[in-house]
Structures are given as structure tokens and as C-alpha cells.
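Minutes, project huddle
Topic: does the predicted pose make sense with 4'-deoxy-4'-aminopyridoxal-5'-phosphate bound?
PN asked that the exact inputs be recorded in the minutes so nobody has to dig through chat later. Recorded below.
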Amino acid sequence: MNFEQLVRPNIQRLTPYSCARDEFKGKAAHVFLDANENPYNAPLNRYPDPLQEELKQELSRVKGVPPTHMFLGNGSDEAIDLVYRIFCEPKVDNVVAIAPTYGMYEVCAHINDVEYRSVPLDEGFRLNADKLLAACDSKTKAVWLCSPNNPTGNCLLRSEVERVISEFPGIVVVDEAYSDFSQQRPFRLDLPQYPNLIVLNTMSKAWGCAAIRLGMAFADPAIIALFNKVKYPYNVNLLTQQQAAEMLHNLPKLQQWLTTICTERSHLLPAVAELPLCRRLYPTDANFFLAEVTDADSIYHYLVERGIIVRNRNRVVLCGNCLRITIGTPQENCELLAALRQYR
Ligand code: PMP
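Predicted holo structure (C-alpha cells), as shared on screen:
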């Protein structure tokens, strides 16, 4: 991989903004008159740590990835957008992604005026590395994979993902937003083998913290340096950094949630599969599942009338008449099942 050639020339040349908190890092100081802050209203008066070093230490313990290999952002969505802004020249470069998958990869491509090429997954939503690689050309800067995939729920076959990472001479992003719900080995643990790999994680799913907006990108320090060069100086606010650190000290709680959600998943799926309205249920490694039903639009509206909201994926490629349903609390899942049983 020729790393220099992958990065947009304007980003290679960029002198990043140097903020007050970057310039002075000594611990001994106690009078801070360098950032035009109000001296009152501590701690909210101070800009937060631009590189979130304490939080990265905590995350490192939980994720098994060194802080040097981490970028933290305002949700994974910030990291997704940064991939385009760092690597993809508008109107010139392209990216290749599986389909169906998480919609923001495509939206961010359009916002950044970058061509987005979709490669449909095979039967059973399986990744075919040959097909994906055949869609890449000399202007393909990044490949998007998502495992467990949204909205299909399945993990992509590891050997196929490994082939894409090894054979594609550019950036490969593996979005593992849902990996905590799966038994498969996460790709973030294999970073040392792959200098072109970016793995995305988030606190929005298993960690129950969608409200605080904290996403992670794990990658080689050379890629992390580019993320830090281009990001907004104070991209993760103090309240988010504090709340995330607090959550990370409560691993038993996370384990308890995961156990409950995975147990519920194992009860709910067979029950849904037996319903007359269910045509096909796709296996899932995530906290949601995709069900092909007799009439997705009608069942969606029927559930809305009862105050139950699922995601209608009827108009998504390869997902005709499919609903994507998140695993809720035992009571919520019971209510869903009861409503579906009464559907005529
Ligand atoms: N990746 C995937 C695969 C997702 O499904 C989602 C949210 N639905 C995200 C990323 C977004 O995560 P965040 O809340 O961290 O922006």
C-alpha cells in the first residue's frame, strides 16, 4: 500500500489548527489564561481534552487496543465522514460497499461528492470478496464492510473479509458497531496485521449510550494521526467524556444487558418464525433481526397504530417485504409478539 497516494493532496499539505489545549500540556500550571475562557463556572468553563487521553486509557482496558490506535468522535458517523474527507477527492475518487448496509456510508459519499459503488451481497447476505474486489479500480480509496451487518444482522464470513483487507490496496473499513452481540472474534484485535484496516465501534448499541454520541475508530497510528489532523479541535465534549468513562467502570452492567438481550433474542426469533405473517427469518448476530413478512408496509402501519415502531426496510435492495426489528425488554418483546399474533 502506498499510503502517500491514498491521502488527498490538500490533507497531506494541511497545517492543522493548533488549539490552546494542544500547545500547553504541562501538569504544573494552575493559572490558565491561554484560551479566552471565563474563569468562573468550573468545570464547564474549560475546553475539554482535545485528544481525550484519559478516556482512551479506560477504553484501551476494555477494548484491548492501545490508545495510540484510537480515534474518538461524535458518534461513529464522525469517523465515517472523516474517511471521505481524508482519503477521497470529490468528483475523482470512489468507494465500494456491500449492499444492503448502513445508510450513512452512502449519504456521506454524496455529501462529499464521491462516487459510491454498491455490490449486492450473495444469497443469505454472504460477502463475496471476488465480486467486491472486481468493483474496485485505481480510483477506489476505501471499501465499506459492516459485520454484523445492518440491516441484515449477520456477520460477514471472516475469511472473505480477510481476503478483502489483504488484497485491496487501499483503506478497508469494518464497522463492528454490533460486535458485542456476536460470538465472533472482533477485527479490532487483528489491527497489527493490517495497516490499511479501520475498525469502527460505538457506545450507542451494547453500551446503551446512544444519547452521549461517542464513536470509535481503531487503526494504525498513521491513520489515527490523519483523523486527528482533520477533526474539529474539541470534537468530544466534556460531559460525553465523563459519562463514557463512568460507563466503562460498570462492566458487570454491560454483561448483564448483553445476557438479557441475547436471551430475549433466542426466545423472540423462534416465536416470530412461527407466525403466519413471517415468510423468512434471517439469522442474526446483532441486537436486531430482519424478517421477511407477507406485507411489510401493511404490518409496519398496523404496528404503528398500536404504538410499536419497527424499521420498514421494504424499499431497501434485497430486503423486499422486510422489517428490521430491535430486541427490546422482555415486556416490549411480549407486546410486539401479542400484536403480531393478532394481525389479520
Ligand atoms: N454503524 C452502524 C452499522 C450502525 O447501524 C449505526 C447506527 N444505526 C452506526 C454506525 C452509528 O453509530 P453512532 O451512533 O456511533 O453514530
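Observations noted during the meeting:
- Residues 94 and 115 are 5 Å apart (CA to CA).
- The mean pLDDT is 96.
No decisions taken; revisit at the next huddle.
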